[in-house]
Design goal:
The chain has helices at 12-43, 53-56, 100-115, 136-147, 152-161, 168-177, 182-191, 195-207, 229-241, and strands spanning 81-83, 89-95, 120-126, 215-218, 221-224. The protein is an alpha+beta fold. The protein folds into 2 domains: 8-43; 50-241, Glutaredoxin, CATH 3.40.30. A 5-stranded mixed β-sheet has the order 1-3-2-4-5, with helices on both faces. Strand 2 (89-95), helix 3 and strand 3 (120-126) form a beta-alpha-beta unit. The chain is extended, with a radius of gyration of 25 Å. 33% of the residues are buried. Mean pLDDT is 83; it is low at 38-64.
């Protein structure tokens, strides 16, 4: 009488086939997972390498902030300014009003400028990633138009506080809220505001290998990503102490 058939899980060929299928499924899942993550990062305007920033740039890394092999002269006399124009420490921020990571960094660089008004010169340069953030340039124009009435930073803050509302009607609401002459503001919007300056900012950022927003240049040294407040404060203190 023939012996009963051997169960499939005791036969090497089916077991091997199952393990191979599971391994391939796991590999495919990881490819899709990381690919989706990189896509979301790029769509948000964040350089795909930036997720490594928070884990790798820590207080212990501050010793690396010694004179760099390459420094970038990206300060501009027509950039919106906070702080002491003759300060020892210059922080240039290339940012995008529609980028969530620039929004995350916004309270950090505003807070540092407020805490070190005599030691830090903070400059903002526009780097609108228009292919993925179509309202970034119009927002930069709105801020520049507010700047013509000496309310640049008031509009700047409004735009980041209301990042999901960057249509022209929203700009007009913010203009009223911060006390602008709305007729002058509207005319400026229609003219394109400081288009030439925004174009120069883009060109300067590209030349300085800005790959995503926000990108900081601290006394010429490039640091990418949304720097935590305490880390940026330690960097400032390090430069203050330097002779």
């Amino acid at each position: 009488m023939p012996s009963p058939a051997q169960p499939w899980y005791e036969r090497p060929a089916p077991v091997f086939a199952l393990l191979t299928a599971l391994a391939f499924a796991g590999f495919l899942f990881l490819v899709i997972w990381y690919g989706a993550g990189y896509y979301r990062a790029m769509k948000s305007g964040k350089n795909v390498a930036l997720p490594q920033f928070r884990s790798s740039f820590t207080a212990g890394s501050l010793s690396a902030l010694k004179p760099a092999a390459k420094l970038y002269d990206v300060a501009s006399p027509d950039a919106p300014l906070l702080g002491n124009p003759y300060a020892k420490i210059t922080i240039v921020v290339f940012g995008d009003f529609e980028c969530p990571y620039t929004k995350e960094a916004h309270p950090t660089f505003r807070g540092i400028a407020a805490e070190y008004p005599n030691d830090v010169r903070l400059l903002w340069r526009d780097f609108p990633l228009e292919t993925i953030h179509p309202r970034a340039r119009p927002a930069a124009v709105a801020a520049s138009c507010a700047g013509r009435q000496d309310k640049y930073w008031a509009m700047h803050d409004k735009l980041f506080a209301n990042q999901n509302a960057l249509e022209e009607k929203d700009f007009l609401n913010y203009a009223e809220q911060i006390g602008l002459n709305t007729a002058e503001f509207t005319a400026c919007l229609k003219s394109g505001g400081d288009k030439e300056r925004i174009d120069r900012d883009l060109a300067a950022g590209t030349a300085a290998t800005v790959r995503g927003t926000p990108t900081f240049f601290i006394n010429g040294q490039r640091v990418e990503g949304a720097i935590p407040y305490e880390i940026l404060k330690q960097i400032v203190e390090k430069f203050k102490a330097a002779k």
